[in-house]
């Protein structure tokens, strides 16, 4: 096999192993329950009818291995299970929450790349000067701030004091695109951390690339500055950043859960938090598998992109 | 998690004196840190409950959602955040250090695979998701939350330790010690462990801010805390309903959390500048995910 093919095969194999691990981990959760799972899950309302219903829905009287196989087979066919609380299929929960979350995530990524790369290039071009120092300090400071703290402060200033934007998305339902004002603050909060880390990565990569021999050589040939920056240096600077971007998927997911809770947006994060509060194990498990698989797939995608930008960069499988 | 892998000594000019940033960081982090560490000493006994979300009436910052004095809650609320984060960071290293050191020093391929491969796979699970999954079936307390956050940090920390230690372990000095018949302890801890201390210190600072983020976010989502706990993150969550009437109960704890995380991150970065950055580039998992490529 060519090196590229063998790398790809190994990377996909790791992805498959990660997917299997997520499924096993999520399944192991019900097994980890102390004592009788049905009694524990019934919680505050331990009446026999409810316990029997839970036992029936989760098929707790069958051996764990059989249930795992059944559940995994269902997952393979796109069947995520049935809710304990409402009796509705988990798929319908996912379908309900999918739109708003996808909208938030895609808007964030849409703004993330130009904002992060732009700030990074700007700082690198003015390396060591005031612009660079301001960008470096602010990105370093903001990137550690939890979304909820930043979010409530922005709400207080822009919704409460100034009255420019609505404080939450209450009353808009799932049709958020029709109310763009309600989306400004959530997307801004979601952007805060990834933009900072991306800008820092791009800045570092650009500075290194601009100091490299090939850029010096290109300058000697008299190639235009902008062309050197954007056609030669930037692709090399973006490669490690793309790799890093994959790791920020983790943050984006955390961010989506927090931002949906904060701005009362009826997306997957809200569905997940409600299910956690109601101890609706099948819904939590189904969503966890969805989130886990999305993370795995996005990580593979980012690794492919990284290789595309700089094939010699080492990306492991 | 890394934002510091970008700047290394010797490459590029470092025109920044660093002193300004150092001072800025200390000023920002001093207030929340002092409140968190010393606040409980000055909190005093709880006063009688007043009406929810009022201003004035002897309450400097008003009252919260159940009518408690906001200032007293703030004095009490920093300690759990900071202590849980410190405990979680320490716990993560307690597990990651031996795993990483053994994986780096062993000459048995299967042992290294056995130790490191499962961690590669665990990296795929988003940390907050892991915490929420466990919170569905158990009700973790503060100690449970620290354990969970530590667990979420182990894969990354162990990889960092292994990568840094693998470099030190391949030095001639270690070969010489091996031939001399030195004990594993003297090689692993005495030599390799000591040579990666700088990298570890740098990583510990960055990791602590990451852990602080996760602890505060989990508490905001109601994991690992009582619904009426004196905790800055819980205060932000529970007092949000009164944001229009009594914003101080939300704004002050939120500002303190922002100051703590921002200042902490700036402080660690300035400290790294001052101490001289370790050569961490190859040790970062984002750059090089394990040694096979």
Q: How many DSSP-defined strands of chain A? A: 0
Low-confidence stretches of chain B: 1-15, 280-293
Query: Mean pLDDT score of chain A, rounded?
Result: 78
- Helix and strand content put the structural class of chain B at mainly alpha
**Helix content estimate of chain A:** over 70%
End-to-end Cα distance of chain A, whole Å, is 15 Å
The SSE order of chain A reads HHHHHHHHHHHH
Report the radius of gyration of chain B as a whole number of Å: 22 Å
Assign the structural class of chain A, choosing from mainly alpha, mainly beta, alpha/beta, alpha+beta, or little secondary structure: mainly alpha
Number of helices of chain A: 12
Mean pLDDT of chain B: 77
Oligomer: heterodimer
Shape summary of chain A: globular
Describe the structure.
The complex is a heterodimer of chains A (317) and B (293). Chain A has 317 residues and is mainly alpha-helical. Chain A is 76% helix and 0% strand. In chain A, helix 5 packs across helix 11. Chain A contains twelve helices and no strands. The radius of gyration of chain A is 24 Å and the shape is globular. With 293 residues, chain B is an all-alpha fold. Chain B contains ten helices and no strands. The N terminus and C terminus of chain B are likely disordered. Helices cover 66% and strands 0% of the residues of chain B. Chains A and B meet through helix 1, helix 6, helix 7, helix 8 and helix 10 of A and helix 1, helix 3, helix 4, helix 8 and helix 9 of B.
């Amino acid at each position: 096999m060519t090196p590229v093919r063998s790398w790809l095969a190994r990377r996909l194999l790791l992805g498959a192993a990660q997917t299997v691990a997520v499924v096993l981990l999520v399944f192991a959760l019900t097994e980890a329950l102390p004592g009788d799972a049905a009694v524990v899950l019934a919680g505050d309302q331990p009446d026999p009818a409810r316990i029997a219903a839970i036992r029936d829905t989760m098929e707790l009287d069958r051996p764990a291995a059989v249930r795992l196989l059944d559940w995994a087979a269902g997952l393979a066919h796109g069947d995520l299970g049935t809710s304990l609380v409402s009796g509705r299929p988990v798929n319908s929960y996912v379908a309900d929450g999918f739109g708003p979350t996808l909208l938030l995530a895609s808007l964030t990524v849409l703004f993330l790349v130009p904002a992060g790369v732009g700030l990074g290039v700007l700082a690198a071009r003015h390396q060591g000067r005031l612009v660079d120092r301001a960008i470096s300090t602010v990105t370093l400071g903001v990137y550690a701030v939890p979304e909820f703290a930043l979010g409530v402060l922005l709400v207080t200033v822009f919704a409460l004091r100034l009255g420019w934007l609505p404080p939450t998305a209450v009353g808009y339902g799932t049709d958020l695109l029709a109310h763009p004002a309600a989306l400004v603050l959530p997307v801004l909060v979601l952007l805060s951390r990834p933009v900072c880390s991306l800008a820092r990565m791009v800045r570092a990569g650009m500075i290194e690339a601009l100091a490299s021999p090939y850029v010096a050589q290109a300058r000697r040939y008299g190639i235009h500055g902008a062309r050197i920056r954007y056609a030669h240096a930037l692709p090399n600077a973006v490669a490690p950043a793309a790799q890093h971007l994959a790791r920020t998927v983790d943050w984006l997911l955390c961010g989506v859960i927090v931002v949906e809770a904060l701005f009362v947006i009826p997306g997957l994060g809200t569905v997940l938090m409600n299910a956690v509060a109601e101890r609706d194990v099948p819904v939590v498990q189904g969503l966890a598998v969805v989130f886990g698989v999305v993370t795995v797939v996005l990580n593979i995608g980012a690794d492919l992109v990284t290789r595309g930008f700089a094939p010699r960069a080492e990306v492991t499988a | 998690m890394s934002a510091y892998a970008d700047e290394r000594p010797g490459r590029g000019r470092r025109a920044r004196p660093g002193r300004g940033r150092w001072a800025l960081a200390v000023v920002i982090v001093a207030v929340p840190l002092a409140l968190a560490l010393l606040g409980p000493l000055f909190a005093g006994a709880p006063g009688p409950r007043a009406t929810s979300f009022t201003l004035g009436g002897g309450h400097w910052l008003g009252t919260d959602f159940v009518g408690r004095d906001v200032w007293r809650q703030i004095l009490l609320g920093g300690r759990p955040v900071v202590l849980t984060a410190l405990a979680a960071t320490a716990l993560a290293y307690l597990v990651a250090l031996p795993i990483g050191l053994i994986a780096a020093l062993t000459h048995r391929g299967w042992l290294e695979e056995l130790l490191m491969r499962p961690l590669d796979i665990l990296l795929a699970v988003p940390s907050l998701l892991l915490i929420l999954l466990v919170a569905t079936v158990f009700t973790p307390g503060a100690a449970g939350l620290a354990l969970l956050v530590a667990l979420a940090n182990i894969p990354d920390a162990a990889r960092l330790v292994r990568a840094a230690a693998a470099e030190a372990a391949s030095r001639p000095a270690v070969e010489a010690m091996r031939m001399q018949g030195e004990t594993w302890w003297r090689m692993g801890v005495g030599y390799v462990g000591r040579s990666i201390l700088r990298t570890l210190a740098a990583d510990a600072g960055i990791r602590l801010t990451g852990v602080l983020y996760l602890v505060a976010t989990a508490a905001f989502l109601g994991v690992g805390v009582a619904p009426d706990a004196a905790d800055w993150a819980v205060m932000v969550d529970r007092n949000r309903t009164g944001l229009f009437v009594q914003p101080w109960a939300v704004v002050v704890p939120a500002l303190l959390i922002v100051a703590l995380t921002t200042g902490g991150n700036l402080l660690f970065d300035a400290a790294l500048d001052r101490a001289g950055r370790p050569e961490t580039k190859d040790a970062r998992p984002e750059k090089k995910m394990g040694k096979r490529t």
